[in-house]
UniProtKB/TrEMBL annotation:
Residues 7-78 form the Transcription regulator PadR N-terminal domain. PANTHER family: NEGATIVE TRANSCRIPTION REGULATOR PADR, TRANSCRIPTIONAL REGULATOR YQJI. This is DNA-binding PadR family transcriptional regulator. Residues 175-197 are annotated as: Disordered. It comes from Flexivirga oryzae. Residues 92-167 form the Transcription regulator PadR C-terminal domain. Keywords: DNA-binding.
Length: 197
């Protein structure tokens, strides 16, 4: 999630200080991805350093400084709207990492991990579906966020079904630490190398 670009986009509507930006962000995304105000001000500091925002005047009576877009900031936002979100910029997929480790380590009950995840995901999906049914159609932004989360949960359940089917076909002896990289041992403690697919 690009906090940087989200804040720049919000500043298109006019100058705001950090707490306002946080409130606007959470309101527009239904509070799905809460921000702490420290994160907002840290990001604003970087944006100011990079010449994308500037203070919009002196601090108010509470010491808050509003920020506004510079010309470079407006250009950055316009560029952001026009490019797709690159998958490699998203955070690591912790579930995929967890399962990848589970199938390569002895003594790990992979089926249980899959079942636990499926149960949690189905519960989350039911909660989202209930929220979606209760939506009145007046808040398009929130409903789009909800739908995105529902589709993501549905995809995860399908993937877990696939993982379970794959595991059922593989005998334990086929689960290897890696097909491509040597495992570090006490006699070979160096970094993994010669990784290839």
């Amino acid at each position: 999630m690009s906090i940087k670009h989200s804040l720049l986009a919000l500043l298109q509507g006019g100058p705001m200080y950090g707490a306002q930006l946080r409130q606007e962000f959470e309101q527009r995304t239904g509070g799905t991805w809460p921000l702490n105000v420290g994160q907002v001000y840290t990001t604003l500091g970087r944006l100011e350093r990079d010449g994308l925002v500037e203070s919009a005047g002196a601090a108010d009576e509470e010491g808050r400084i509003a920020y506004r877009l510079t010309d470079a900031g407006r250009s950055e936002v316009q560029q952001w709207w026009t490019v797709p979100v690159a998958r490699e910029q998203t955070p690591r997929n912790e579930l995929a990492i967890k399962l990848a480790l589970a199938v390569t380590l002895p003594g790990v009950d992979v089926q249980r991990i899959v079942q636990t995840q499926r149960t949690a995901t189905m519960t989350h999906l039911r909660d989202l579906t209930r929220l979606k049914r209760g939506a009145d159609g007046d808040d398009l932004a929130w409903e789009l966020v909800l739908e995105s989360l529902i589709f993501a949960d549905e995809a995860e359940v399908r993937w877990l079904d696939h993982v379970e089917a794959r595991i059922a076909r593989v005998t334990p002896t086929r689960a290897k630490a890696s097909r491509t990289a040597r495992v570090a041992t006490p006699g070979n403690a160096g970094p993994r190398e010669e990784v290839s697919r």
